[in-house]
Amino acid sequence: xxxxxxxxxxxxxxxxxxxxxxxxxxxxxxxxxxxxxxxxxxxxxxxxxxxxxxxxxx
Length: 58
Known about the structure:
Layout: E1 2-10, E2 13-22, E3 27-34, H1 39-53
Antiparallel strand pairs: 1-2, 2-3
């Protein structure tokens, strides 16, 4: 898996997007958006990934 963050310019300022991509399937498996580019943004994207990809019983 790889993660990246980017910004999207809007009329109200920048919107930041963090995404986690499964390299094998090339699918986005976690993402988060925020008005601020802080560590918490990446952690929220990683949390989404863990919730979606965690095997049952783990």
